[in-house]
User: Which sequence fits this backbone?
């Protein structure tokens, strides 16, 4: 009876594979993550010292969005085994059996090439090359190499998520100067405290999946101290554009206030003695604020550029 039941379940699952809907393909692009990518890329584009035709600007952001979606699709293609083990990811199209891996691979590769070519034709080939590099870095360097091999995966891999504002800037100017490099650094140093605050909550999932995230390898207390350390570096990096005279008072005050709050929340995490994070704990508050922080900081950058230009 058991073997018959198992065979029936397997047959039903196999029958569902490959019948992915448009909603499943859209889910493969990780739209929630893509929102932040699009926003920071748009801010990089709007903060550039030159202007771009609205249609070309829209096309550039579209290409970056498609590139980010392609990266996410390739990530889920490779990590379908891990996603099937973890609670927060097991309902994604691949582990849920709504899509086969080949479809995800073809979708990701096709979207990658299309986004890069679109960017190159619409703007310039420097921004297209940066977009291609970001896709490669996330899909290959982070997903295939770093994710399962080192607890520094999210630190080094964070470079992929930090590139969008640089691409947006390069799409307008055709070059990369100190300002977009600082924007890159802000997101790069923001990623560890943001992601590790979340990882402290899903520590058991990563442990079960065999992923060497920092809380799994180094423990919660070490991770908390590192969150605080990276937050101090982030604050200094966020204030640097104002300190160097590259932005006005709107961004400067915003960076100082937002970074001060970020450091205060991260200090509560860093010096916490609580073993298990709670829904109302310091880690949850830091994670929630970290999302607001990046949106508000980059929004202030654009406001500074538009109002004080």
Assistant:
């Amino acid at each position: 009876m058991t073997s018959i039941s198992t065979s029936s379940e397997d047959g039903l699952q196999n029958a569902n594979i490959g019948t992915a809907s448009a909603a499943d393909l859209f889910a493969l692009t990780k739209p929630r993550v893509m929102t932040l990518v699009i926003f920071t890329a748009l801010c990089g584009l709007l903060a550039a010292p030159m202007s771009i035709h609205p249609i070309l600007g829209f096309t550039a952001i579209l290409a970056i969005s498609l590139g980010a979606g392609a990266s996410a699709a390739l990530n889920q293609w490779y990590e379908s085994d891990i996603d099937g083990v973890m609670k927060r990811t097991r309902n994604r199209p691949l582990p849920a059996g709504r899509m086969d891996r080949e479809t995800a691979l073809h979708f990701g590769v096709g979207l990658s090439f299309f986004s890069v070519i679109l960017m190159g034709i619409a703007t310039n080939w420097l921004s297209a090359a940066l977009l291609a590099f970001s896709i490669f870095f996330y899909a290959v360097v982070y997903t295939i190499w770093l994710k399962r091999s080192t607890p520094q995966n999210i630190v080094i891999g964070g470079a992929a998520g930090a590139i969008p504002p640089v691409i947006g800037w390069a799409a307008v100017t055709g070059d990369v100067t100190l300002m977009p490099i600082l924007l890159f650094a802000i997101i790069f140093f923001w990623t560890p405290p943001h992601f590790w605050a979340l990882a402290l909550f899903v520590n058991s999932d990563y442990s079960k999946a065999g992923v060497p995230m920092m809380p799994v390898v180094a423990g919660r207390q070490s991770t908390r101290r590192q969150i605080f350390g990276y937050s101090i570096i982030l604050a200094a990096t966020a204030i640097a554009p104002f300190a160097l005279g590259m932005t006005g008072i709107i961004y400067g005050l915003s960076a100082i206030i937002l970074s001060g709050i970020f450091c205060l929340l991260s200090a509560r995490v860093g010096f916490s003695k609580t073993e298990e994070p709670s829904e109302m704990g310091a880690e949850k508050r830091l994670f929630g604020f970290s999302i607001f922080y990046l949106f508000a900081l980059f929004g202030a950058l654009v406001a500074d550029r538009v109002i004080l230009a």
